Amino acid sequence: MAKNFGLESTTDEVLEGVDLSGKRILVTGVSAGLGVESARALVAHGATVVGTARDLDKARRALTEAMKASASKVELVEVDLASLKSVRAGASELLSRGKPFDVIIANAGVMACPQGKTADGFETQFGTNHLGHFVFVNRLVPLLKSGSRIATLSSAGHQISDVNIDDPNFERTEYQPFTSYGRSKTANILYAVALDDRLKGRGIRATSLHPGVIQTELSRHITPELRAQIQARIAASEGAATFRYKTVPEGAATQVWATVVAPAEAVGGRYCEDCHVCEVNDDPSSRAGVRSYALNLAHANDLWRKSEEMVSEMFSL
Question: Is 72 a catalytic residue?
Fold first, then answer.
């Protein structure tokens, strides 16, 4: 009988009794937070994990602290998602090894940072959270077996804003850190929708997810005042008595669940949180569910074409 998981489920609870021996899993962003916890939990259940990080020394320290003697079981590849040169170099290194993957978890990202640009001139959050993963994952598709899965980490923050395909770099729009974050997180969902549509005929499924509200390094740019506003917004939607931050093991549970536990047909092309598939909800006063604009395939294909134009690379998957 399938187990029921939810808001408070942890990675260890989700993976109880699951044997991942022989599975090869790629996790981006293994220098802190959810990436480290996902790597720890997956290795503990027998998987071989390849992790990417911008700072490999930081990743080694974080993994050693979390995994003790098992840290050496995580292979590391340097990838800076804010630099397409680094992204392409990291992908080329993995392609040259020729070892297939069963799962890719696009975990890394930035949140609500000051206005800036990536090495390639893209707005920082859209360029890092979406375009970096768009190029990296698409280049690695030849290494995915039939039956593989891809998960992109989005957020309930996607409800803040749809993508703006006409002005992705805020050249004509006033920059707001959370508007930018919302756009990038909607892009993460739309990318999974388009990717799933392109790959499901080969038995490869893609999904997106919200890990929950967690205090990790991702929120390093959030001021105490902004944090109070966020908590007030969540409390107004969910009820002050019910809101609490998730722990890191609780936050990483959904990406582990969606990639190695949940039925592929259930999560393919869908958006998940709290270890379940979400329904569409366009009520602007509610944080529940996923906005319909984020699951629209035609919109996802428009973003795909715009992304190819921006990175000057076409992907025929």
Answer: no
Structure tokens belonging to residue 88: 């392409």
Is 58 a catalytic site residue?
Answer: no
Whether 285 is catalytic is no
| pLDDT tens-place string over residues 61-98 | 999 998 887 767 899 999 999 999 999 999 999 999 99
Could you read off the pLDDT of 210-244 as tens digits, one per residue? Answer: 998 887 544 554 556 555 555 555 555 554 445 56
CA distance 29 to 56: 10
- Among candidate residues 148, 155, 181, 293, the one labeled active-site is 181
Q: Which of 155, 161, 184, 185 is flagged as catalytic?
A: 185
**Considering the entire predicted model, what is its pTM?**
0.92
> How would you list the strands of the sheet with 205-210, edge to edge?
74-78, 48-53, 24-28, 101-106, 144-153, 205-210, 271-273, 276-277
Per-residue tokens: 60: 């080694």
Domains (range + CATH), the chain: 11-306 (3.40.50.720)
